[in-house]
Write a structure and sequence with these properties.
single chain, alpha+beta, 7-stranded mixed β-sheet, about 40% helix, globular, Pept_M16_Zn_BS, Metalloenz_LuxS/M16, signal, MPP/UQCRC_Complex
Amino acid sequence: MKKYILMGYCSLAFCTLLSAQSNLVNFKKIKELGGIEEYLYQPNGMNILLLQDNASPVATVQIVYRVGSKHEVLGNTGSTHLLEHLMFKGTPTFNKKNGNTITDVLQNTGAQLNATTWYDRTNYFETLPSDKIELAIQIEADRMRNSLLLKEDKEAEMTVVRNEFERGENNPNALLDKEIWASAYVAHPYHHSTIGWKSDIENAPIEVLKNFYNTYYWPDNATLTIIGDFRKENVFALIEKYFGKITKAPNVMPQPYTEEPQQYGPRKITVKKPGELGVVNKAYKIPGALHEDLPALNILAQIIGSGPSAILNKTFVDTRLGIYSYASATNFKEVGLFTIGVGFPVASKHEDIDAKISEVVAKIQKEGVSQDEVNRVVAKISAQTILARDGSGVIASALNEAIASGDWTDYITGVDRLKKVTPADVLRVANKYLVEDQSTTGYFIPKQAGAQNQNTAKANNYMPENGPFYYRHPENEHAHEENTPASSSLKNKEEEMISVENLIEKSASVFKREKVSGIDVVSVKTSAKDFVTVAASISLGNYASETKNDVIPALTASMLSKGTTLNDKFKFSEKLQKLGVTLNVNASTFKINIGFKCLKKDLDQVIALLAEELRNPLFDAKEFENLKQQFIGNTQQDLNDPGERGSIALSQAIYPKGNPNYSLSVEDNITNIKNATLDEVKAFHKKYFGTASMRLVIVGDTEGANLNASLKKSFKNWNGGVTEKLKFEEASKANAKTEIVVIPEKPSAELFIGQFTGLKRADADYIPFYIGNYTLGAGFAGRLMQTVRDVDGLTYSISSGIGGNIETGGYWYVNASFNPNLFQKGLDATMVQVDKWVKNGITAEELENKKTNLIGSFKVGMSTTNGMARTILSFIERGLEPNYIDQYPKDIEKATLQQVNDAIKKYIQLDKMIIIKAGSLDK
């Protein structure tokens, strides 16, 4: 009897475990490398990658489909990307009618979710609290085969995707890049960009999309990746539960077989549109990512185009022929392009820049590169490979590209491939692939100077990051993106460091805080292995309110990387490059921001280099004049940017001149740059750089890193800096007004709506108002996205936020992009939602959802060392203790519905709306 009972009865947990074990035969282990295990789920052929790390209660679930824009043909270009959007629209289980859309249920857990489409693949992913893994797996299994793909959803989403296309057309580099690919590859399906041709976006029938979906979206064409905090047996049980119902594809999935024919001579294309800088981009055909020559080509691209020591930088930027330069080798599965580009003032001729690029190539083909150059690049990439493994989301993203290239193990072995490259290999690939007859050259020719159209033009302070211009292929992420303000120029947006997507509740946090050589230092040990992240800042006191040249802080910060009294800029950058480290030092008018990530073993060297840069800048006169030209060239580009122009017009309509949040016009800004002197820079450095208000946070594998000893050695006897507080006159709410900023030939226009609130971060109303605004316009689950984008289909990007320096009294704004012909309709639809929000407030259900969302995303965002370091720094800058990290979720939780709705009504007045329209709009 006892034996019968034992055999016939078990606890629920034990039965679940037995069930999981009984199904383990369905999971065939293929291989294991670098801690990643690969399995084949035999019932339906789905690949599985598992990387377990239980140190933080966060995980990323990602599914990669081996289908991208290369699988499309004429008539359905852009189908993969449009499907990416539609697969967020719901299934019979998760949909709007049920009140549980995919974006709602995921975002309400605090998940960071997104999807991206590219030439060889599409991926969907969510990084979320690890106790919500089942939800993520359920959703990914459900939409794999049960996506609704309704005609009405497609019609609404078509205009959303078209607006995304139009936004890309606003960018000269993106536009030129698209034309180069279309000319370089005439037959291979990489010919058309991932987002597709506009007419296909507009006209592709839903039946075409459904057929595409039913052809490629099957488990045997997918890799499911799970990274982070999980138990393998539980994951296997969940995969069995949700994916076990899905069969293999019923038919063979067709694969593109078109090969690019021989190219019999150089090709050239020209794009003429309004702009401020000329661009020459030379592109050479190269093979796919796993080809044996790709490592050498990647190293060549770094030597040519990355950092102060790069050949292009020395040839063009240092000589003032160019404003920026770049080089890159694509790593696509089948074929690709090696590109060399230069942006330059209109005074130069395209033909001269083109010829100079050819001279650079010819010299490399004749003289080759040195062993030291190869070693530096390999050392840099080796270190950066380790440093990049910071959080499950980042690892998933990198694995995604390796899967797309055809072999996920390249994520682990890629550095070993690089280490085998010799200077002879680099010389060989330069001669083999950088061949004029296999090239396509693109010229972007500015049609007219933007300054001619500046009747209403305004632009913001130019605050560049310290370091070389970085250009990324513009369509690398045609994503269903987490919605953030389109413009980067909402002044001092970086001051609002309490963006809760970047925070985490760390209830058992152990913070060590002490003064070291006059610096306020906070140290936090986390589960990160072998690396640390440092975030620091120096206050500029009352500088923002003084009648001084606003560009001096940014110029000073940028001059720091141009050499020190101990090492010229080449030697200095080479030392950093060998360590794989980028020292980011940039400045607003409020503070100097400092940051880096390095291997723990290198911390002492990096601290020494940081101290050298901060304490002993060379301030070379020639470098200063070069830098001013770069600032002017980059600032001039704002003249043709609707986002920049619109946001500055909004700032100027809200704040009076002299207020720290007021933004200068482009003309004033350029005048400031031209008038800036090296003596002013030196005086600024002498007064404001020092330890008086310097704060530094280090997060990661801090045990044994010996930070304090390094700081004491490198920052000994460094004095200076200011402790004064920012003084300012309180602004007041301005009257309603509408302003139009006309910019010709821009297929996407920008809308800004806003008004002064005066809210400061320390105010009791701040968090209630923050929650209220979050309900209106933050992320996929915000009302604006769910109506103006998802229902009305009028925009790709719409959001609301809190802008300005929130220690001095901020402002509230809405930002959206619209096709000029749909602009008024978009404005009307936006105002319907704003009106409803102000008059009726938010609901109790919305409040609870947003609290769950904010507190969940708190966990997710701070699972990276950078998220934690920046967050703690923002707290101590405001006079709070690091352990406010534990209090913040409680402050969110205790906000009441009455407080939230009262705050909305208190700070937003419908009759005081300032409306800015920027783009190709008729006054």
